[in-house]
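Appendix B, Record 12. Input sequence as logged:
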Amino acid sequence: MQGSANLNIMLKAARKAGRSLSKDFREVENLQVSMKGAGDFVSKADLAAEEILREELRTARPTYGWLAEESDAEDGEDPTRRWIVDPLDGTTNFLHGLPHWAVSIALEHKGQIVAGVIYDPTKDEMFFAEKGAGAWMNDSRLRVSGRSKMIEALFATGLPFGGRADLPDTLQELARVLPACAGVRRFGAAALDLAYVAAGRYDGYWERRVNAWDVAAGLLIVREAGGLVEPITGGANPLEDGEMICANEGLFAPLAKAVRG
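Logged structural output:
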């Protein structure tokens, strides 16, 4: 697929940050034997990846705004466009030597995501989409799965950790969804959960309290692969409020019913 100039800038930036993180990831695997220092090392790896993305994206498009996990939001000279970046989605996986994490870059124009890239360096899988041009992984066109029976469906979600207050709600959702489906996975990287829905590996995904930079690229990739996306509660905005349900057309209604209760 021939992408726009902006998409090509994003793909190049994601690969460059991915190379840096892959090198650091090999070091993390060596650090697992000692409890000291792995967390600090990962924080540095995260910041180094963000610095690469900032340099690549802002050198190419200096007037665009910036929203990222590790730094303060910045308004650009062009108030209609901004980069939304997560240099390392799946930090806990990375820290534990689990090879499931990604670089996520989205471009927002006038409040709409117009391009998104999610790169998984350990599997060399590059998921990307531009508004109106479909979704892709490497050279393959992506489509959401064609499953329509809940009992055959595999879903992804996130689980609250570290004393978060939404645990009771999540347990109730799981109590409704688990008996009705073929399984629920919690792989620990929201960007890849969305990419996997777009690729038909998962049939749907839901989560609350996720950050814009975790999901901005993935939401577009799912929609461009033919998936439906809605907030869990009426009137919410998936990007701004960090809650969403997404699935293929055949499973969206039953999944949403089970999640909403």
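The mean pLDDT is 94.
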